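_Per-residue structure_
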Amino acid sequence: MYILGIDPGFGRLGYGIIEYRNNKFRTVEYGCITTPAKERLSLRLKKIEEDLEEVLSRNKIDEASIEDLFFNQNITTGIQVAEARGVVLCTLEKHGIKISEYTPLQVKQALVGYGRAKKDQVEYMVKDILKLDKMPKIDDTTDALAIAICHANSNKYNSYIEKEINKK
């Protein structure tokens, strides 16, 4: 299964594509979609859509996973991230890609085993699970890969539960 992980953002949107087959992970592609800070909102959203379309056109994607929004302090930034996230959801839906959403706590729990894990612990697990020589330069990309791994692990667990229920 090919899984696209998305760490939604407005100025930087991280993405990571992994292959998960027979309990093994393989990194396919990862990167960051960036938009110019001084550009109009509509043009920034258009760039996110166009760049995501390009990523989708060159990769086979079975399912996608995206981080749920978490508003901490800056509501204006949160609204812009929500708008970018909406563009991503719409683009994925247009391609018929199944979408799952995970909170930051769920992602940390899936990778580290503790929902309040620190960023460096998550980074270590991403590097270890995907057998990367070095970490991606941008945190948003690492987060996107973590979200994809979380989805693979959640899917595995859900498949197991479904099989057990069907046995009865």
